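Run log, item B.
One chain of 144 residues. Sequence copied directly from the ordering sheet:
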Amino acid sequence: GSAEYPSIIGTVTFYESRYGVLIMADIGGLPKGDPNSCQDSIFAFHIHEGGSCTGNAEDLFADTGMHWNPTGCPHPYHAGDLPPLFGNNGYAFSVFLSNRFSLRDVIGKTVVLHRNPDDFHTQPSGNSGQKIACGVIRSVQSDS
């Protein structure tokens, strides 16, 4: 999580399958929405082109760059555009399948969680707001 959201912690795991890449996000410590409001906690979730979760005073994750978009498609058709995460009392869990990339394509890129939901319309990034958490996608090999 960012300095403003230090309690955010989680894991995003990518599995290669014969149908595409299976992505599992397991995130805790998310900002909680007002249960009496129609605007609960929905967070934009993307793969970004940069390979570092560093930045500057204005954008702590500026070095993540833009959404990963190797084919130059408009938003929301970037390879890095992922389904939103729906907060559940500070926790989110999601599993989905994508055929927009292979596992080796995303190693070294970053996954970024944004404070607002993606509107799936505004160019270039869906008006998804502040970056609140980031992780670098790394390859992990099993010994078994």
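Observations after the first pass:
- The helical segments are 103-106.
- The chain has a mean pLDDT of 92.
Flagged for discussion on Thursday.
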